[in-house]
Amino acid sequence: MQKNLTAANSSQKLMVFVLSMSLYGMATLFTELIPKFQVGIVEFSVEYFLFIPLTLAILFDPMSAALGAATGELVFSEIMLGQFGGLGELEKFISVTIGVMIAGKMVKDPTNKKMVGIAAITGVAVQQLMGTIVDILKVQFAVEDFEAVAGLPESVYITEGFACLNDILFSGILFCMIPTILLVPKLYGKIEPLLGMKPRTKDSIVSGVSPKLVIGSVIAFAIAIGAEMLAENGMALIDWEASWAESKTALAIGMVVAAVIAVVVLAVIRSKSNSGKESA
Amino acid sequence: MKRLSENILDKFSIDFLKNQVLKNAYGNNDTVIAALDPRVLLAWYLFFGIVPWFSHNAIFLLGCFLFVAATTRLAKVAGLVLFLFALGVFSQTGYLLIVTMFFGGDSSAIMPLLVLTLKVATVSLASITVFSGLDPDKLSNGLMWYGVPERLSFSVSYAYRILPMLMEEFQNVLLSYRLRSNPPKPCGFIGKIKYLAYQVKVVIQAFYPLMLNTAKRSRTTVEVLEIKGYRYAASSREVRKMRLSSLKITSGDLMFIAVSFLWVSIICLVSTVI
Amino acid sequence: MNIIEIKDLTFSYPGAKYATLKNVNLTVEKGDFLAIIGNNGCGKSTLCKTLNGIIPHFIVGDMAGEVTVCGLNTKDEEIGVLSQKAGYVYQDFENQIIRPTVLDDASYACLNYAMKDHRTRGLRALEKCGLVGRENDFIWQLSGGQTHLLALAGALSLDPEILILDEPIAQLDPAHADKIYEVLKDLNENHGKTIIVIEHHTEYIAQYCKNVVFMKDGTPQWKLPSREALCRVEELEQADIFPPQVTVAAHEIQKSQETLRNKKLPVTIEEGMRFFEGFRYLPNDFIRKKSNTNSTKSMISFKNVSLSYRTVKGEPKQVFKDLSVDINDGEKVAVIGSNGAGKSTFMKLMTGLIKPADGEIYLDGRRINGDSPERLSETISLVYQNPEDMFIKDSIENDISYAMRVRDTPDCKSRTDELLKAFRLDTLKDRDGRLLSGGQMRRASLAVGIALKPPILLLDEPTANLDIATRHEIMRTLSELKGVTDTVLIATHDMQLVCQWAERILVLCGGRIIADGERDEIFSNRRVCEIAGIRPPDIFTLGRIIDPSARCYTTDEFERSFRRETVCV
Known about the structure:
The complex is a heterotrimer. Chain A is built from ten helices and two strands. By secondary structure, chain A is mainly alpha-helical. Chain A has one domain (about 15-280). In chain C, strands 6-7-8-3-9-10 form a six-stranded mixed beta sheet. In chain C, strands 17-18-19-14-20-21 form a six-stranded mixed beta sheet, with helices on both faces. Chain C has a four-stranded antiparallel beta sheet with strand order 2-1-4-5, with no helix packed on it. Chain C starts with a strand and ends with a helix. Chains in contact: A-B, A-C, B-C.
């Protein structure tokens, strides 16, 4: 019986994962194509279809919904459209996962609209804040003597902070919180039977923000920052030069090696195709 | 603003998007790039996706860019993807370049921007060549070989399978709205704003039926995955080995590596000489 | 030898109040070709899911009793083991295809179970299903029938002893349906597979199946050889199942003619020929189906319409070329043709959802080429093939009232109540459309479709997957629409529906209308039927075999116009 239970559980999780991945993935595919526009200092963007994984995380297993959403975004909008940005994508992946998961875990009773609303906006806020922190750190690392440049820290904090606040308050409320509040009670009790599950209740084990979750999130976030720094190093306004590219002798050696290898490889191919012909 | 408000749903047809994505994934499986081994291409991507960041030599970067652009051409990438690429590069640095030139910025200001633009363009094009040029199954096998979690490589190939169905479903739901709703007339500025708001609302609302319909589908899919032994395979080394056995480095791959190497060494030489 | 043994099986879904399966006791012999019949929602699919371990290993409900498959108790074995014994093809089979290319999907399961010869197994399965030559094709290049065959191949690749198919031909044209059943027959006869189908089409049961299990309210009532089963006409009709038309006709005639009492009822056309030997066609008092409107007011008009769509590879595909047709006010038109002939596209053109590349379309005298569907929705309404896509709100009441509400129709509330009552949905009005049963869903989608009182109504496959009672109900509803919605178009494969209802038939084939006329003209034209892949109802075919001049389309007409020669003399 134990085995049965785990099989059922893992496939239910897979179901939530697949659902979240495909829906959010498709939504991000669209947002990739809808341009953003600015009115004054407020940026309007329909960037946020985050209500989809938020809703699923509140109704089902938050972890699967969160991972599904992050994977969906990666696969559909990054890989499918060839917009893959390398290691830097990890930051988005992790922040989306953490934000959605925290929101999902916060809600004990999906029929409680107030709780759902708070959770949704918290999820967005967490995700946005992480993005902002990474952005600020990026500048801080990139610019030597960050503190020494007069006015720089303040201006960075203010612009980044404002962008973050704008995203949370504008996109967050309009495109995340409100749709989530509307969708969760509508779907509650309807979507679960379609997946062959029982609706989530107060006693379900999935809810509750535990210290473990917080610590896990912090560690994951640290990794995200690391990855972002690594990826963005070259983007910095002041480039640092790879030493091998600077030294001409190293370069020369590299080229010799390259040429030699190229020749060897070509020779191998030739001999291979020759032997192929002979045997044929 | 005006153009956007005219019609999201009309201009940017889901059909077109579906077609482009599929074309991008499968329409070019007879190209030189598609025939390459995914492992080779991924390694190649690692080089052209990272190295340009660490150089600020314009000639070297230009060389890289030309080479990568040539591979993108070979991969016969769909128009939409190239358009997005252009948009992406422009929004990141390109517009700065144009603005600077417009205000008569001298070469000292243009040069760093040009370098930055070249970097961004090279790296993006490299990722387009690899991720759009390869068919998704090969890509997912290649990722698996590099030890990427099974879930992700499964997601890559499954995403391409589900996308056409999902878009059709989404399209049907939107059509239902179109058949029955009564949108505000897009006349005047206020009317246009209202119309835009209406469309955004419809797209969001469409996810309610879409979620339920997709839930029904994914249940069947996951049941079938269970029947077809997906869970066994995920933990079995043997299956992994069997799946990866289809990967073979051919002389074409070696040639590709050699040519890339040759090109890089030539541009290195040129850039040091000048 | 029994390959399946079910003892006292009771099962209820998690959270459900009632048991879906009650005290099921059933045995299936090895090598059987078994059909499971029963009305919508009687537990047929649930029963089948207990055979491959999905229940109880995947769907964790309350299960009592024992199921033994190939000597294995399903409770003790894992799904992996069971699914290699019993292959399953779902009703929504397109969701069953996981991989993007054909051979890949066919061999996917074998690969997952680490079978060294997974490719050969996949190829062998494709060969058995007649998909040779399509190995490297992408899924979306396949037709509906081929996709179904691929789902079958995927199940077959594991070489299971039992194959279970849930309504395999529900949405297929006759040619594709025959193909599937021929494949199943081959598997059953030449490869020793035990085959179980859930099937509404009794004509196919008569032709292919050996035994029939009749289910009612979650319990199998009986299991009989199919001949015998299908002859229980009254019992089947009570349970909303259509027996074959031939059987029904013979049954009715038997009632009035003493001499036929002890003759065995026929279930196939061949048997029918023997049964009705000596009968003659005497066109009786029967009413010719003729258009009862003399209106010449054109409601829908196509003038040289052309349309093509983009393809992933190569040239765009032409759907219509220079299509011209006029449909007058009050006409009842059936649009028929094989899968992929363009029936749905034809209808979408009328509603403005698709714009023609060339040519003009007029609705009620107004040119609509540039009009958006929102503006046309008060003139024309389309009910989708898949009713689930019609529901965009969270309750059917909201769905029905939506179109009126956004137009500020004054009597919105009363009209909604009226519709709910007319379609007997008032007790269900707070439920989500998707969670209703098949028949209720259809009714609700019709109510949504006519809410705005459009003069023209388009229905795409309105009777697919429906049992007899729901079908009658849909037919009745259609006849009640008179007065408001007079012009109705139905796209369908259901020839019984066409014969009973349509006054005019359009035959679409290869993007052209190859025939246009009354049913006599269409069904008597063998060439047209052949080209377009149309199969007239069995009763019509039987009538024509007995007497080539016969034209009867329903069992009623048959009964009235065929007499025994002796009677006339």
